[in-house]
Design a protein that fits this description.
92 residues, homopentamer, 1 helix, OB fold (Dihydrolipoamide Acetyltransferase, E2P), mainly beta
């Protein structure tokens, strides 16, 4: 599981029917410590109501389809599964 | 899920029988913000009628075989699952 | 399987219901030989009681959901599966 | 799916029994456009009769075990699924 | 599938119960041609009796759990599936 910031949305009218109804967000991966710039940007399915600027927890692969019966039948490989309140790291 | 531009096609006469009938496109991954050059080029199965220059949404792994019963039985790991109309990103 | 050091925790009040009850730790991947800095930081589910500074063994993908029936139903893709006592490498 | 060139073979007498009978080829990933050097070299299972210098289409992960009932029972994660006749890219 | 050299062992007393009895080896990925240094070091489950300095064939992901019924129930994602006798590459 990794962290990301929600930075946009994607619109796709022509798509696999099983993807209909899923909100597609553009997310930018972030380092949990905020110390390192991560340039990886992806498109994630969201069913938690994540919005602009939210820091989210996301998964890849089969995990993304475990979320619900609708996820299970849809060709998706990245899903938002949590909205982060805080990251606490130990003093180093 | 990631974005890519359709840049070509691939022909393979000798192949696993379950791949017969699938259109194989060469795609070049692109950054959703268009800010960063991504050099990753792959071969993807397409059943949406994507063509030259289209910006597509694609998935990897098991997600690529969720698309249909034919996909499920074929040894494929990259599939186009949407054709992008627009990417909207928040002001930064 | 890879090694990592536990460096923090993550709190997410809004999340997929099946993730409720799982402890979410921030881990930093480490090289088994300690010779190379690895900058990869992730969020992992922990059910072994790993704590600050522990060196842990972690898995990704479907392996993370093999751990228990609760893991199987939750959208998670990184799990801690062992706490390391020692790494012994042969003289080179 | 990606492209590769067949560059060698691997012999392993001691191996998982379910791998017996599979031909193991060394492949070197190539860029579909031939514009970029890719240094990734892997070992792939082949059942199509690919030989020295052939350009092949290969898959990773679960897709590699979809090929046949024998593949399904064997611990393999890279398989050749096509032999490429031609790659056609649009003028840019 | 990739090649690696066995370079050490890992001891973890506290671990998922289903991992009990598995030997955990530290492996260092190697290039099949020996031309390129690969710095990737992992922990792999071994049931073939691989030892110090052996060159092994290993798999990742679900493939690692196909090996046996015990593997199937354990949270592991890297397994040694062969011990290499020789790598033969064509003249280039």
């Amino acid at each position: 599981m990794r962290l990301a910031k929600v930075i946009g949305t994607v619109v796709a009218t022509r798509k696999e029917e099983s993807l209909t109804g899923f909100k597609l967000l553009v997310i930018q991966e972030i380092d949990p410590l905020g110390k390192r710039e991560v340039k990886n940007r992806l498109v994630a399915v969201d069913t938690l109501g994540a919005g602009e600027g939210d820091i989210v927890l996301w998964v890849v692969g089969g995990a993304a389809r475990v979320v619900s019966e609708e996820h299970r039948k849809a060709p998706l490989d990245v899903a938002i599964v949590g909205i982060i309140d805080s990251v606490d790291t130990y003093d180093e």
